Amino acid sequence: MDIITTISTSITLAKRLREISKNIDDAEFKNLLADLSSELADLKLEAAALKERIAALQEENALLKQTSPPADEKPVGRKWGCYQFEGDSVLYCPACWDSKRKKSSTTRVSTRFRHCPVCNAPIGAG
Hints:
mainly alpha
């Protein structure tokens, strides 16, 4: 049984208690029952919001797992100051890879320099 079902059952029970309370003249009991019903309704809304948030985070987590590089992936060489990876001819920014493990492709500025559009690092062929 999930939390939404449990809360719905609790709300149903509170409604039944409210019906029974019509035969009771105790004002304090009726006030407590009204408070309980209100709290349960708020709890049901919060649980539904949390369930949606969990689903969104699970989706985001799955996407991140698909797009993140494998843990054992490492640059196989350097060319013009940039990293190269196996089976890939693109030249990547070493600063982005070293700090965030993100492959940021660089753009050529001149015959000796490249530029990273992500971190704005100038990369020299020195």
